[in-house]
Amino acid sequence: MSFPAYDEYEDSGVEWLGEVPEHWDIDRFKRSTVSCRNGIWGSEAKGDENDIPCVRVADFDREQLSVCDDIPTVRNVTESERSERTLSNGNLLLEKSGGGDLQPVGFVVLYNHDEPAVCSNFVAKMELAEGMVPSYWRYCHAAAYSVRLNYRSIKQTSGIQNLDQSQYLDERAPFPPEDEQKAISSFLDVETSKIDGLVSEQRRLTQLLAEKRQAVISHAVTKGLNPNAPLKPSGIQWLGDVPQHWEVSRLKHATSRIVDCPHDTPTYNDDGDFLAIRTSDLDDGKLFPEIMKRVDEYEYHHRIRREPVLQNDIVYSREGGRWGHAALVTANDRFCLGQRMMQFRANAKFDARFLMWHLNSKNVYRQGDVDTVGAASPHVNVGTICNYRITKPPTSEQQEISDYLGERLGEFDSLEAEAERAIELLQERRTALISAAVTGKIDVRGFASEEAMA
């Protein structure tokens, strides 16, 4: 869909805005606000009349540019402390502290709840001036964030960041007439909702692909590739029936080496020649060297002192939110174990790929899950892992299953990559549409008229 432009433009004199409609004003962001007041953390909830929901940065819905539906945190804030800090529908919230390299501070969302709340001390409440349309301004701040206008106001670039709100609000922004703010807001509400629907469809597709991928892995390593093979009870709850000619074994009998990582945090070095494998560096059957942190030779030798990590060794995450993933090592003399990782070396009776896929199956995952129930930080004991019950097909059949999974899962990877690329393009389209509308590159006033007649 293409949209018309305005009839007359003029140079705004502002780099991120370029030319804007001739009748629009250009002014500082601070003109749009009556106040910008830091939030308050208060004290622990007490169950009395001073308990109130507290919006944290974690409650920002960065896609919808609003506060999440549920605000889980309740704090105790006295009436005097709430003065001028209580949030009402239509306030904007400015992220003051937090952030990181991939998500710098300075994001703005709309408080769209009817119930009163406060915001944490990492967030500032912005009360808009008369004639300023809240939804327009959340989109305007989003457009500014997308071009990194906030960067100049961030006082440090690593660790916990702090935004100088006075400096940020001194940046210049477009001020359309109030009726056009409403038209732009209505247009973007509708059009971004359409894009969000398409993104949701693609995300649902990736979820279905992940579920199908897991089902294919689990079926192949417990039932094999022959649908007509006679089955027998394995005697193991998580394995169920297995082909009659297969055996059942334990992980410790399938390996020649089982190595736990050194229980200390690696000292990373951006100029190091070696790569430390962390739980975030692998997924089911996939290793991602391109995102791994580096270590120097001294740290590398410290971390492989128990055993070098060799090509076709299996690395396995056993702690944290990403426990239970396994992948094959792709080269000798390059990798070492980071924290929360284990290393296995298949013995002569097992194909390394088959063993790796088995470790990624839900049949094995459920065996480790017994150690993590109710744990704030999931952690699977080494003893539990060593005694995982696994199937043991003939070696030739293990290789056939591994070949099949490599090909079949490659198809899933391609489909997932297509879906992820579609999501990326849709999100780029969303960002571009918001920017075009709030900076006046497209004229959406006719859209509002069409909506009124519909």
* Continuous helix count: 11
CATH superfamily of the largest domain: DNA methylase specificity domains
Low-confidence stretches: none
Sequence of strands across the biggest β-sheet: 4-14-10-12
Number of domains: 3
Computed over alpha carbons, the radius of gyration is: 28 Å
Helix content: 25-40%
- End-to-end C-alpha gap: 18 Å
Share in β-strands: 15-25%
Broad CATH class of the largest domain: Alpha Beta
* CATH architecture assignment name of the largest domain: Alpha-Beta Complex
Number of strands: 29
Shape: elongated
Mean pLDDT over all positions: 94
Characterization of this structure:
By secondary structure, the chain is of the alpha+beta class. It folds into three domains: 1-24 and 177-210 and 401-454; 27-175, DNA methylase specificity domains (Adenine-n6-DNA-methyltransferase TaqI, Chain A, domain 2), CATH 3.90.220.20; 225-392, DNA methylase specificity domains (Adenine-n6-DNA-methyltransferase TaqI, Chain A, domain 2). The chain is 34% helix and 22% strand. The chain is built from eleven helices and 29 strands. A four-stranded antiparallel sheet has the order 4-14-10-12. A four-stranded mixed sheet has the order 5-9-6-13, with no helix packed on it. The protein has a four-stranded antiparallel sheet with strand order 20-28-25-26. Helix 2 (134-146) packs across helix 10. The longest helix has 46 residues, at 178-223. The model has no long low-confidence stretch (mean pLDDT 94). InterPro entries: Restrct_endonuc_typeI_TRD, Restrct_endonuc_typeI_TRD_sf, Type-I_RS_S_subunit. It comes from Rosistilla ulvae. Residues 308-406 form the Type I restriction modification DNA specificity domain. Keywords: DNA-binding, Restriction system. Belongs to the type-I restriction system S methylase family.
